[in-house]
Amino acid sequence: LTVLTSQFNEIKEENKKLSDKLSKMKVELLEYLRSLTSNTDSAANKVRRGMSFEIDDCKFHLEAMTRPDYQPLVDNKRIIEKLQERITLMNMELITEREHNEKIIKDIKDEVETQCGENRNKETSNENIEYDSLNDEMEYQMYLFTLYCNHPVTGEFMESILEVHKDELLPTVLDKAYELMKLAPHIPIERCRLVKYHYVDDLMEQSFDLDEFQHQTIGQIVGRASRYYPFGLFLETCEESEISDKYHDGANNIMISVVDVSTGKGPAKPMRVEEGWTVRELKQHIGEVYSLNSSCMRLVMKNYNDVTDISDVGCTLEEIFRKSTHEDRQVLTLIL
Q1: How far is CA 177 from the centre of its chain?
Q2: Mean pLDDT over all residues of the chain?
Q3: CA gap 320, 198 in Å, rounded
Q4: CA nearest 62: which of 18, 7, 8?
Q5: How many CB atoms neighbour CB 23 within 10 A?
Q6: Can you tell me which residues the record assigns to a coiled coil (predicted)?
Q7: 182 and 190 in contact (C-beta within 8 Å)?
Q8: What φ, ψ does residue 318 adopt, rounded to 5°?
Q9: Left, alpha or beta for 291 (phi > 0: left; psi -120 to 50: alpha)?
Q10: Which end of the chain is more exposed for a tag (fewer CB within 10 A), N or C?
Q11: How far is it, in rounded angstroms, from Cα 155 to Cα 67?
Q12: 296 secondary structure, DSSP code
């Protein structure tokens, strides 16, 4: 369409130049003819008539070119109309193709987002599984102990929950227990220690002294991996000049009542004994505590509704206590 328009404009420009040229020639010819009007049969007159015919013929063609039914113009218009129709169809095809391409791009984006969403969900699921696994592993490595303590000022029996990691050293665990029970500034931490404690039996089973266990972790000390333990920890305190006795695993607490045949039964007092002791070793220990002669002692133990004389028994306390209940083994009567 652009080429045809350009050609049409060139034709119009040439026609205009030709018309101008003819007009100029006509003026020159008229001037020349005026000079020859006196001789009509002359060669110049004949030339003038011939040129006049040519000029009229040019006028005829020029007038024909300006009419709507001029064939070259009709052909050009027809070509232009066909080109316009073709351009319209091509525009429609381009629009359809563009819409199709946009739909394909949208489908690709949706598919990519779907895949990314699935990957994100999968990654999130994997992260959650890994997080839960880490939580389970971390939880498995955390130990929970019931912590007990007698307040050094008020004497109040306190109880709390101590949570520590299995790889924490004993001094670190002691620091946490000290802070948990809020013993500062009533007593320095140097006068505190942790003891394996059975609340039901009221038994200090084993002391964890720093001179022996300071380089061991709580996991190494308690022995087995478990979230909860059947025993607790007792935060034991002592006086400034007091030296705490070491408690060994396999000990027991008993109540000793001293009976003098002349004065009657005395009050029961607690005593810690080792289950590996023999009765003879028990007598020696009682003699040291009460400043008594062990050879003059008789020991009797309550057994259900009866009492048993164990003074001359040759076995260990563990074997004796194995046949009795906890309540029975707590009461031993020393007869002088």
Answers
A1: 31
A2: 77
A3: 20
A4: 18
A5: 11
A6: 1-28
A7: no
A8: -60, -40
A9: left
A10: N
A11: 129
A12: G
Tokens encoding 318: 């563990």
* Residues 277, 285: Cα–Cα separation, whole Å: 10
- In the predicted model, is pLDDT for residue 193 greater than 70? yes
- Please tell me the distance from the alpha carbon of residue 324 to that of residue 329, in angstroms, as a whole number: 6
Percent pLDDT > 70 in the chain is 72
Single-letter amino acid code for the residue at 237: T
Amino acid identity, position 139? E
Tokens of 326: 């906890």
Q: Give yes or no for a contact between 239 and 271, defined as CB atoms under 8 angstroms apart.
A: no
DSSP codes, 160-203: EEEEEETT-BHHHHHHHHHHHTT-TTTS-GGGEEEEEEETTTTE
Give, rounded to a whole angstrom, the gap between the first and last alpha carbons of the chain.
138
Report residue 147 as tokens: 């912590």
Element (H, E) at 271: strand 264-274
Pairwise CA distance, residues 34 & 329, whole Å: 167
CA 318 to CA 303: how far, in whole Å? 15
When mean pLDDT is compared across 133-147, 193-207, 290-304, the lowest value belongs to 133-147
- What is the chain's length? 336
- pLDDT for residue 336: 46
The model's confidence at residue 327, banded by pLDDT at 50, 70 and 90, is very low
Q: Which residue has the tokens 């003059």?
A: 296
β-pair type (251-260, 331-335): parallel
Those residues with Cβ within 8 angstroms of residue 176's Cβ, 6 or more apart along the chain or in another chain: 162, 164, 168
CA distance 187 to 180: 14
Taking a C-beta distance cutoff of 8 angstroms, is the pair 247, 272 a contact? Answer: yes
CB 286 within 8 A of CB 294: yes
Contacts of 161 (CB under 8 A, 6+ apart): 144, 145, 146, 147
